[in-house]
Amino acid sequence: MKHPFKVNDEGHLMVGGIDTLELAEKYGTPLFVYDVERIRKNARAFVDTFKKRNIRAQVAYASKAFSSIAMAQVAKQENLSLDVVSQGELYTAIKAGFPVERIHMHGNNKSREELKMAVKYQIGCIVIDNFYEIELLNEIVNEMNTTMNVLIRVTPGIEAHTHDYILTGNEDSKFGFDLTNGQATQALKKLKETPSLHLKGIHCHIGSQIFETDGFIMAIEKLFTALNTWKEEEDFECEVLNLGGGFGIRYTEEDQPLPLENYVDALIDEVEKQTKKYHIPFPEIWIEPGRSIVGDAGITLYTIGSMKEIPGVRKYISVDGGMTDNLRPALYDAKYDAVLAANVNGNKEEEVSIAGKCCESGDMLIWDIHLPKIRPDDVLAVFSTGAYGYSMANHYNRFPKAAVVFVENGVDKLVVKRESFEDMLDNDLSYN
Ligand SMILES: Cc1ncc(COP(=O)(O)O)c(C=O)c1O
Ligand SMILES: N[C@@H](CCCC[NH3+])C(=O)O
Protein backbone atom coordinates (compact mmCIF):
# COMPACT_ATOMS: atom_id res chain seq x y z
CA MET A 1 0.00 0.00 0.00
CA LYS A 2 0.97 3.64 -0.29
CA HIS A 3 2.75 4.53 2.93
CA PRO A 4 4.81 7.56 3.79
CA PHE A 5 8.01 5.66 4.63
CA LYS A 6 11.20 5.18 2.60
CA VAL A 7 12.83 1.87 1.74
CA ASN A 8 16.65 1.69 1.58
CA ASP A 9 18.75 -0.04 -1.08
CA GLU A 10 18.71 -3.29 0.89
CA GLY A 11 14.89 -3.25 0.87
CA HIS A 12 14.63 -2.34 4.56
CA LEU A 13 11.88 -0.09 5.89
CA MET A 14 13.21 3.28 7.04
CA VAL A 15 11.64 5.78 9.44
CA GLY A 16 12.98 9.32 9.73
CA GLY A 17 16.25 8.27 8.10
CA ILE A 18 16.83 5.19 10.29
CA ASP A 19 16.60 1.53 9.40
CA THR A 20 13.71 -0.06 11.35
CA LEU A 21 15.76 -3.26 11.80
CA GLU A 22 18.33 -1.23 13.73
CA LEU A 23 15.55 0.24 15.86
CA ALA A 24 14.12 -3.22 16.60
CA GLU A 25 17.59 -4.43 17.54
CA LYS A 26 18.38 -1.42 19.70
CA TYR A 27 15.07 -1.07 21.59
CA GLY A 28 13.50 -4.52 21.29
CA THR A 29 9.96 -5.28 20.16
CA PRO A 30 7.04 -4.64 20.23
CA LEU A 31 8.09 -1.08 19.54
CA PHE A 32 6.10 1.98 18.54
CA VAL A 33 8.13 4.16 16.19
CA TYR A 34 6.99 7.67 15.26
CA ASP A 35 8.18 9.70 12.30
CA VAL A 36 8.16 13.12 13.95
CA GLU A 37 8.49 14.95 10.64
CA ARG A 38 5.22 13.34 9.59
CA ILE A 39 3.52 14.47 12.82
CA ARG A 40 4.70 18.01 12.10
CA LYS A 41 3.55 17.82 8.48
CA ASN A 42 0.08 16.67 9.53
CA ALA A 43 -0.17 19.40 12.17
CA ARG A 44 0.95 22.05 9.71
CA ALA A 45 -1.59 20.94 7.10
CA PHE A 46 -4.30 22.06 9.55
CA VAL A 47 -2.60 25.10 11.07
CA ASP A 48 -1.31 26.53 7.78
CA THR A 49 -4.65 26.18 5.98
CA PHE A 50 -6.37 28.31 8.62
CA LYS A 51 -3.49 30.79 8.45
CA LYS A 52 -3.53 30.98 4.67
CA ARG A 53 -7.19 31.86 4.76
CA ASN A 54 -6.69 34.33 7.58
CA ILE A 55 -9.09 32.56 9.89
CA ARG A 56 -8.69 32.84 13.66
CA ALA A 57 -8.39 29.25 14.78
CA GLN A 58 -7.03 26.77 17.29
CA VAL A 59 -5.99 23.30 16.21
CA ALA A 60 -6.23 21.26 19.41
CA TYR A 61 -4.45 17.93 19.20
CA ALA A 62 -6.76 15.31 20.75
CA SER A 63 -4.20 13.79 23.08
CA LYS A 64 -6.31 10.66 23.64
CA ALA A 65 -4.87 9.46 20.31
CA PHE A 66 -1.40 9.32 21.87
CA SER A 67 -0.57 11.10 25.07
CA SER A 68 3.00 11.35 26.31
CA ILE A 69 5.28 14.12 27.50
CA ALA A 70 7.27 14.11 24.26
CA MET A 71 4.11 14.23 22.15
CA ALA A 72 2.73 17.17 24.12
CA GLN A 73 6.06 18.91 23.56
CA VAL A 74 5.89 18.35 19.80
CA ALA A 75 2.31 19.69 19.86
CA LYS A 76 3.58 22.77 21.68
CA GLN A 77 6.42 23.23 19.17
CA GLU A 78 3.85 23.13 16.36
CA ASN A 79 1.64 25.75 18.06
CA LEU A 80 -1.18 23.32 18.55
CA SER A 81 -3.64 23.51 21.40
CA LEU A 82 -4.41 20.35 23.37
CA ASP A 83 -7.61 18.45 24.06
CA VAL A 84 -7.49 16.40 27.24
CA VAL A 85 -10.14 14.06 28.61
CA SER A 86 -8.84 13.23 32.04
CA GLN A 87 -6.66 14.29 34.90
CA GLY A 88 -4.03 11.90 33.57
CA GLU A 89 -3.91 13.57 30.16
CA LEU A 90 -3.93 17.00 31.83
CA TYR A 91 -1.14 15.96 34.19
CA THR A 92 0.91 14.75 31.21
CA ALA A 93 0.41 18.09 29.43
CA ILE A 94 1.40 20.06 32.50
CA LYS A 95 4.50 17.92 33.07
CA ALA A 96 5.40 18.57 29.43
CA GLY A 97 5.22 22.32 30.03
CA PHE A 98 2.28 22.75 27.69
CA PRO A 99 0.77 26.27 27.87
CA VAL A 100 -2.30 25.86 30.09
CA GLU A 101 -4.30 28.52 28.29
CA ARG A 102 -4.30 26.32 25.19
CA ILE A 103 -5.62 23.20 26.97
CA HIS A 104 -9.28 22.24 26.58
CA MET A 105 -10.92 19.62 28.74
CA HIS A 106 -13.55 17.12 27.61
CA GLY A 107 -15.30 14.20 29.23
CA ASN A 108 -18.83 12.93 29.85
CA ASN A 109 -18.12 12.28 33.52
CA LYS A 110 -15.51 14.69 34.70
CA SER A 111 -14.89 14.10 38.37
CA ARG A 112 -14.72 16.77 41.05
CA GLU A 113 -10.93 16.22 41.20
CA GLU A 114 -10.54 16.55 37.44
CA LEU A 115 -12.55 19.75 37.33
CA LYS A 116 -10.70 21.15 40.34
CA MET A 117 -7.37 20.48 38.69
CA ALA A 118 -8.53 22.15 35.46
CA VAL A 119 -9.75 25.18 37.41
CA LYS A 120 -6.63 25.33 39.56
CA TYR A 121 -4.43 25.46 36.46
CA GLN A 122 -6.87 27.85 34.74
CA ILE A 123 -6.84 25.88 31.52
CA GLY A 124 -8.21 27.52 28.36
CA CYS A 125 -11.66 26.04 28.55
CA ILE A 126 -13.83 23.21 29.76
CA VAL A 127 -16.27 21.66 27.33
CA ILE A 128 -19.44 21.06 29.33
CA ASP A 129 -21.11 17.77 28.60
CA ASN A 130 -24.19 17.56 30.85
CA PHE A 131 -26.37 19.37 33.42
CA TYR A 132 -24.69 17.70 36.39
CA GLU A 133 -21.38 19.15 35.25
CA ILE A 134 -22.77 22.70 35.13
CA GLU A 135 -23.77 22.44 38.80
CA LEU A 136 -20.53 20.77 39.85
CA LEU A 137 -18.24 23.16 37.98
CA ASN A 138 -20.15 26.18 39.23
CA GLU A 139 -19.75 24.93 42.79
CA ILE A 140 -16.00 24.41 42.26
CA VAL A 141 -15.27 27.80 40.67
CA ASN A 142 -17.25 29.53 43.45
CA GLU A 143 -15.38 27.59 46.14
CA MET A 144 -12.10 28.54 44.49
CA ASN A 145 -13.31 32.10 44.02
CA THR A 146 -12.55 32.21 40.32
CA THR A 147 -14.17 31.82 36.88
CA MET A 148 -13.83 29.45 33.94
CA ASN A 149 -14.33 29.64 30.18
CA VAL A 150 -16.66 26.97 28.88
CA LEU A 151 -18.16 25.64 25.67
CA ILE A 152 -21.34 23.57 25.47
CA ARG A 153 -20.95 20.22 23.75
CA VAL A 154 -23.96 19.61 21.52
CA THR A 155 -25.01 16.58 19.54
CA PRO A 156 -26.44 17.68 16.22
CA GLY A 157 -28.16 14.40 15.32
CA ILE A 158 -25.77 13.39 12.53
CA GLU A 159 -25.19 9.76 11.60
CA ALA A 160 -21.64 9.88 10.21
CA HIS A 161 -20.45 6.85 8.23
CA THR A 162 -18.20 5.10 10.69
CA HIS A 163 -18.14 2.31 13.25
CA ASP A 164 -20.99 2.58 15.80
CA TYR A 165 -18.57 2.68 18.71
CA ILE A 166 -16.73 5.71 17.35
CA LEU A 167 -19.88 7.59 16.35
CA THR A 168 -20.60 10.46 18.71
CA GLY A 169 -22.79 13.10 17.05
CA ASN A 170 -26.06 11.18 17.02
CA GLU A 171 -29.03 11.88 19.30
CA ASP A 172 -28.72 8.63 21.27
CA SER A 173 -25.20 9.34 22.49
CA LYS A 174 -23.69 9.46 25.95
CA PHE A 175 -21.96 12.71 24.96
CA GLY A 176 -23.30 16.25 25.04
CA PHE A 177 -26.64 18.05 24.92
CA ASP A 178 -29.03 17.21 22.14
CA LEU A 179 -29.87 20.11 19.84
CA THR A 180 -33.23 18.85 18.64
CA ASN A 181 -34.88 17.94 21.94
CA GLY A 182 -34.20 21.35 23.48
CA GLN A 183 -31.64 20.23 26.07
CA ALA A 184 -28.87 22.27 24.45
CA THR A 185 -31.02 25.42 24.73
CA GLN A 186 -31.77 24.57 28.37
CA ALA A 187 -28.02 24.30 29.00
CA LEU A 188 -27.46 27.68 27.36
CA LYS A 189 -30.13 29.27 29.58
CA LYS A 190 -28.64 27.67 32.65
CA LEU A 191 -25.15 28.94 31.79
CA LYS A 192 -26.46 32.46 31.16
CA GLU A 193 -27.64 32.44 34.78
CA THR A 194 -24.22 31.22 35.96
CA PRO A 195 -21.93 34.26 35.83
CA SER A 196 -18.78 32.48 36.97
CA LEU A 197 -18.89 30.20 33.89
CA HIS A 198 -18.14 32.23 30.76
CA LEU A 199 -19.85 30.63 27.82
CA LYS A 200 -17.63 31.19 24.77
CA GLY A 201 -19.39 29.01 22.27
CA ILE A 202 -20.33 25.51 21.24
CA HIS A 203 -18.60 22.26 20.47
CA CYS A 204 -19.61 19.34 18.31
CA HIS A 205 -17.76 16.17 17.32
CA ILE A 206 -19.63 13.91 14.93
CA GLY A 207 -17.41 10.83 15.11
CA SER A 208 -14.05 9.46 14.12
CA GLN A 209 -12.35 8.09 10.98
CA ILE A 210 -14.66 10.05 8.64
CA PHE A 211 -13.72 10.27 4.97
CA GLU A 212 -16.28 12.69 3.62
CA THR A 213 -16.98 16.31 4.33
CA ASP A 214 -20.80 16.04 4.08
CA GLY A 215 -21.22 14.97 7.73
CA PHE A 216 -19.28 18.01 8.91
CA ILE A 217 -21.24 20.29 6.57
CA MET A 218 -24.58 18.94 7.78
CA ALA A 219 -23.45 19.41 11.37
CA ILE A 220 -22.43 23.03 10.70
CA GLU A 221 -25.84 23.72 9.10
CA LYS A 222 -27.57 22.37 12.20
CA LEU A 223 -25.29 24.29 14.54
CA PHE A 224 -26.05 27.55 12.75
CA THR A 225 -29.79 26.96 12.77
CA ALA A 226 -29.44 26.72 16.55
CA LEU A 227 -27.04 29.67 16.77
CA ASN A 228 -29.50 31.80 14.82
CA THR A 229 -32.33 30.93 17.18
CA TRP A 230 -30.07 31.53 20.17
CA LYS A 231 -29.06 34.90 18.71
CA GLU A 232 -32.68 35.94 18.26
CA GLU A 233 -34.21 34.44 21.38
CA GLU A 234 -31.34 34.41 23.84
CA ASP A 235 -29.15 37.24 22.56
CA PHE A 236 -26.25 34.79 22.38
CA GLU A 237 -23.16 35.54 20.34
CA CYS A 238 -20.91 32.57 19.58
CA GLU A 239 -17.24 33.53 19.88
CA VAL A 240 -15.88 30.01 19.43
CA LEU A 241 -17.15 27.23 17.22
CA ASN A 242 -15.37 23.95 17.97
CA LEU A 243 -16.02 21.42 15.23
CA GLY A 244 -14.21 18.48 16.83
CA GLY A 245 -11.96 15.98 15.08
CA GLY A 246 -12.59 12.77 13.24
CA PHE A 247 -10.70 13.28 9.97
CA GLY A 248 -10.02 9.89 8.44
CA ILE A 249 -6.63 8.36 7.64
CA ARG A 250 -5.37 5.48 5.52
CA TYR A 251 -4.97 2.16 7.31
CA THR A 252 -5.19 -0.02 4.18
CA GLU A 253 -5.66 0.44 0.45
CA GLU A 254 -9.43 0.46 1.02
CA ASP A 255 -9.20 3.82 2.78
CA GLN A 256 -9.17 6.90 0.60
CA PRO A 257 -8.70 9.85 2.93
CA LEU A 258 -8.94 13.44 1.75
CA PRO A 259 -5.90 15.67 2.07
CA LEU A 260 -6.17 17.25 5.53
CA GLU A 261 -6.28 20.74 3.98
CA ASN A 262 -9.54 19.80 2.23
CA TYR A 263 -11.34 19.17 5.51
CA VAL A 264 -10.29 22.59 6.80
CA ASP A 265 -11.30 24.30 3.56
CA ALA A 266 -14.70 22.60 3.62
CA LEU A 267 -15.30 23.63 7.24
CA ILE A 268 -14.30 27.24 6.59
CA ASP A 269 -16.41 27.45 3.41
CA GLU A 270 -19.49 26.19 5.20
CA VAL A 271 -19.03 28.46 8.21
CA GLU A 272 -18.62 31.40 5.80
CA LYS A 273 -21.82 30.42 4.04
CA GLN A 274 -23.80 30.09 7.25
CA THR A 275 -22.49 33.28 8.87
CA LYS A 276 -23.51 35.20 5.75
CA LYS A 277 -26.91 33.51 5.63
CA TYR A 278 -27.76 34.41 9.23
CA HIS A 279 -25.70 37.64 9.55
CA ILE A 280 -23.75 36.13 12.41
CA PRO A 281 -20.17 37.35 13.07
CA PHE A 282 -17.54 34.83 11.94
CA PRO A 283 -16.49 32.92 15.09
CA GLU A 284 -13.02 31.64 15.94
CA ILE A 285 -12.89 28.05 14.67
CA TRP A 286 -11.39 25.28 16.78
CA ILE A 287 -10.83 21.72 15.64
CA GLU A 288 -9.61 18.65 17.55
CA PRO A 289 -7.80 16.21 15.28
CA GLY A 290 -6.18 13.24 16.98
CA ARG A 291 -5.84 10.32 14.59
CA SER A 292 -5.02 12.50 11.58
CA ILE A 293 -2.04 14.06 13.38
CA VAL A 294 -0.35 10.94 14.75
CA GLY A 295 -2.02 7.94 13.07
CA ASP A 296 0.01 7.52 9.90
CA ALA A 297 3.18 8.81 11.59
CA GLY A 298 3.39 5.70 13.75
CA ILE A 299 4.29 2.11 13.00
CA THR A 300 4.65 -0.88 15.31
CA LEU A 301 7.56 -3.28 14.98
CA TYR A 302 7.02 -6.85 16.13
CA THR A 303 9.19 -9.93 16.11
CA ILE A 304 7.65 -12.98 14.52
CA GLY A 305 7.66 -16.17 16.56
CA SER A 306 5.60 -19.27 16.08
CA MET A 307 3.81 -20.27 12.90
CA LYS A 308 0.94 -22.68 12.54
CA GLU A 309 -0.27 -23.92 9.20
CA ILE A 310 -3.68 -25.59 9.00
CA PRO A 311 -3.65 -27.24 5.57
CA GLY A 312 -6.37 -25.87 3.33
CA VAL A 313 -7.48 -23.41 6.02
CA ARG A 314 -4.90 -20.78 6.90
CA LYS A 315 -1.41 -20.04 8.15
CA TYR A 316 -1.18 -18.25 11.49
CA ILE A 317 1.93 -16.19 12.14
CA SER A 318 2.27 -15.03 15.73
CA VAL A 319 3.99 -11.84 16.86
CA ASP A 320 5.29 -10.75 20.26
CA GLY A 321 2.46 -8.24 20.84
CA GLY A 322 -1.20 -8.01 19.85
CA MET A 323 -4.33 -6.70 21.50
CA THR A 324 -2.24 -5.41 24.41
CA ASP A 325 -0.60 -2.82 22.16
CA ASN A 326 -3.31 -2.58 19.49
CA LEU A 327 -6.84 -3.15 20.68
CA ARG A 328 -8.46 -1.72 17.56
CA PRO A 329 -8.80 -4.92 15.49
CA ALA A 330 -10.49 -6.71 18.40
CA LEU A 331 -12.62 -3.72 19.37
CA TYR A 332 -13.67 -2.31 15.99
CA ASP A 333 -12.69 -5.01 13.54
CA ALA A 334 -10.13 -2.45 12.34
CA LYS A 335 -7.95 -3.37 9.36
CA TYR A 336 -4.20 -2.84 9.11
CA ASP A 337 -1.46 -3.32 6.57
CA ALA A 338 2.04 -4.58 7.23
CA VAL A 339 5.37 -5.40 5.60
CA LEU A 340 8.42 -7.42 6.49
CA ALA A 341 10.84 -4.74 7.65
CA ALA A 342 13.78 -6.51 5.98
CA ASN A 343 12.07 -7.10 2.66
CA VAL A 344 9.47 -4.44 1.99
CA ASN A 345 9.22 -4.89 -1.74
CA GLY A 346 9.77 -8.66 -1.90
CA ASN A 347 7.54 -10.99 -3.81
CA LYS A 348 4.39 -11.50 -1.73
CA GLU A 349 4.24 -15.24 -2.07
CA GLU A 350 2.46 -16.19 1.18
CA GLU A 351 -1.04 -15.49 2.44
CA VAL A 352 -0.94 -15.45 6.23
CA SER A 353 -2.89 -14.13 9.21
CA ILE A 354 -1.10 -12.23 11.96
CA ALA A 355 -1.98 -13.33 15.48
CA GLY A 356 -1.22 -11.61 18.75
CA LYS A 357 0.03 -13.61 21.71
CA CYS A 358 -2.84 -13.05 24.15
CA CYS A 359 -4.98 -15.92 25.33
CA GLU A 360 -7.93 -14.80 23.23
CA SER A 361 -9.00 -16.12 19.81
CA GLY A 362 -10.01 -12.58 18.85
CA ASP A 363 -6.45 -11.39 19.35
CA MET A 364 -5.75 -11.19 15.63
CA LEU A 365 -3.97 -8.15 14.20
CA ILE A 366 -4.43 -8.82 10.49
CA TRP A 367 -6.39 -11.48 8.60
CA ASP A 368 -5.26 -12.78 5.20
CA ILE A 369 -2.35 -10.56 4.29
CA HIS A 370 0.13 -11.28 1.50
CA LEU A 371 3.78 -11.15 2.52
CA PRO A 372 7.12 -12.49 1.30
CA LYS A 373 8.26 -15.82 2.74
CA ILE A 374 8.45 -15.41 6.53
CA ARG A 375 10.91 -16.92 8.97
CA PRO A 376 10.87 -16.84 12.79
CA ASP A 377 12.66 -13.74 14.13
CA ASP A 378 11.71 -11.65 11.11
CA VAL A 379 10.52 -8.16 12.01
CA LEU A 380 7.00 -7.24 10.98
CA ALA A 381 6.13 -3.54 10.63
CA VAL A 382 2.45 -2.67 10.96
CA PHE A 383 1.52 0.73 9.50
CA SER A 384 -0.70 3.50 10.84
CA THR A 385 -0.59 2.48 14.48
CA GLY A 386 0.24 5.96 15.75
CA ALA A 387 -3.26 6.73 17.03
CA TYR A 388 -5.16 4.77 19.68
CA GLY A 389 -2.44 2.11 19.82
CA TYR A 390 -0.19 2.95 22.74
CA SER A 391 -2.96 5.05 24.29
CA MET A 392 -5.30 2.05 24.45
CA ALA A 393 -2.60 -0.41 25.49
CA ASN A 394 -3.42 -2.67 28.38
CA HIS A 395 -1.91 -5.29 30.63
CA TYR A 396 -3.95 -8.30 29.59
CA ASN A 397 -2.05 -11.48 30.39
CA ARG A 398 0.40 -9.20 32.17
CA PHE A 399 2.38 -8.25 29.12
CA PRO A 400 4.39 -5.12 29.95
CA LYS A 401 3.66 -2.08 27.78
CA ALA A 402 5.84 -1.53 24.72
CA ALA A 403 8.39 1.25 24.32
CA VAL A 404 7.94 4.31 22.10
CA VAL A 405 10.67 5.88 20.00
CA PHE A 406 10.59 9.20 18.12
CA VAL A 407 12.74 9.50 15.01
CA GLU A 408 13.56 12.71 13.18
CA ASN A 409 16.39 13.73 10.84
CA GLY A 410 18.25 10.49 11.31
CA VAL A 411 18.15 10.66 15.13
CA ASP A 412 16.18 8.19 17.26
CA LYS A 413 15.10 9.00 20.79
CA LEU A 414 13.37 6.82 23.34
CA VAL A 415 10.34 8.81 24.56
CA VAL A 416 8.47 6.15 26.55
CA LYS A 417 10.48 3.39 28.22
CA ARG A 418 9.48 -0.22 27.87
CA GLU A 419 7.73 -1.34 31.03
CA SER A 420 9.58 -3.80 33.20
CA PHE A 421 7.89 -6.54 35.21
CA GLU A 422 8.78 -4.51 38.32
CA ASP A 423 6.95 -1.48 36.88
CA MET A 424 3.93 -3.64 36.26
CA LEU A 425 3.92 -5.05 39.76
CA ASP A 426 4.57 -1.68 41.37
CA ASN A 427 1.07 -1.45 42.83
CA ASP A 428 0.68 -5.11 43.74
CA LEU A 429 0.68 -5.76 47.48
CA SER A 430 1.03 -9.13 49.10
CA TYR A 431 -1.65 -10.98 51.07
CA ASN A 432 0.32 -13.47 53.08
C1 LIG B 1 -14.60 15.17 21.46
C2 LIG B 1 -13.58 14.56 20.60
N1 LIG B 1 -12.70 15.36 19.99
C3 LIG B 1 -11.73 14.86 19.20
C4 LIG B 1 -11.63 13.50 18.98
C5 LIG B 1 -10.52 13.02 18.10
O1 LIG B 1 -10.97 12.28 17.06
P1 LIG B 1 -9.96 11.79 15.93
O2 LIG B 1 -8.84 11.11 16.59
O3 LIG B 1 -10.77 10.90 15.11
O4 LIG B 1 -9.52 13.01 15.20
C6 LIG B 1 -12.53 12.63 19.58
C7 LIG B 1 -12.51 11.19 19.31
O5 LIG B 1 -13.30 10.69 18.55
C8 LIG B 1 -13.53 13.18 20.41
O6 LIG B 1 -14.40 12.39 21.04
N1 LIG C 1 -10.34 4.99 20.04
C1 LIG C 1 -11.06 5.06 18.82
C2 LIG C 1 -11.68 6.34 18.50
C3 LIG C 1 -12.44 6.95 19.59
C4 LIG C 1 -12.08 8.36 19.62
C5 LIG C 1 -12.55 9.12 20.81
N2 LIG C 1 -13.93 9.57 20.76
C6 LIG C 1 -10.30 4.45 17.69
O1 LIG C 1 -9.33 3.82 17.89
O2 LIG C 1 -10.65 4.56 16.56
Task: Give a written overview of the molecule.
The chain is of the alpha/beta class and 432 residues long. The protein folds into two domains: 14-35 and 296-424, Beta Barrel (Lyase, Ornithine Decarboxylase, Chain A, domain 1); 106-288, Alpha-Beta Barrel (TIM Barrel). The chain is built from twelve helices and 20 strands. It has helices at 20-27, 36-52, 69-77, 87-95, 112-120, 131-143, 183-192, 214-234, 260-278, 291-294, 328-332, 421-424; strands spanning 14-15, 18-19, 31-35, 57-62, 81-84, 103-105, 125-128, 148-155, 177-178, 197-203, 240-242, 284-287, 298-310, 314-319, 338-340, 350-355, 364-371, 379-382, 403-408, 411-416. Strands 3, 13, 14, 15, 16, 17, 18, 19 and 20 form a nine-stranded mixed sheet that branches. Strands 4-5-6-7-8-10-11-12 form an eight-stranded parallel β-barrel, surrounded by six helices. Helix 9 (260-278) links the parallel strand 11 (240-242) and strand 12. The model has no long low-confidence stretch (mean pLDDT 95).
Q: What share of the residues does DSSP label as strand, in percent? A: 15-25%
Mean pLDDT: 95
- CATH topology name of the largest domain, in short, is TIM Barrel
- Tertiary shape: globular
Low-pLDDT parts are none
Task: Note the main sheet.
Answer: 9 strands, mixed
Distance between the termini: 55 Å
Classified by CATH, the class of the largest domain is Alpha Beta
Bound molecules: pyridoxal-5'-phosphate, lysine
**What is the CATH architecture term of the largest domain?**
Alpha-Beta Barrel
Number of strands: 20
**Structural class by secondary-structure content:** alpha/beta
Helix count?
12
Rg, Å, rounded? 23 Å
CATH superfamily of the largest domain: Alanine racemase
**Count of distinct structural domains:** 2
| Estimated helix fraction | 25-40%
